[in-house]
Description:
4-stranded antiparallel sheet
Amino acid sequence: xxxxxxxxxxxxxxxxxxxxxxxxxxxxxxxxxxxxxxxxxxxxxxxxxxxxxxxxxxxxxxxxxxxxxxxxxxxxxxxxxxxxxxxxxxxxxx
Length: 94
């Protein structure tokens, strides 16, 4: 006795829905509080001034301002170092 259908069925065709990750706002753009800057898995970009990291590693603004991307050197506990990308929100000073 056959345990699979004779014709027309396939075991393929199940693909997951894309997660729409990536940079949403770029350097020099305006952002308001709560605005999502980057959606990521893991910390490819690190939060800087006026930016917080959500539980799913999303970076979002906590103040109104302009986005600024930079790099900085990060020191590990074993003395090794690496350069990381940091995202900050620069607020307008009066």
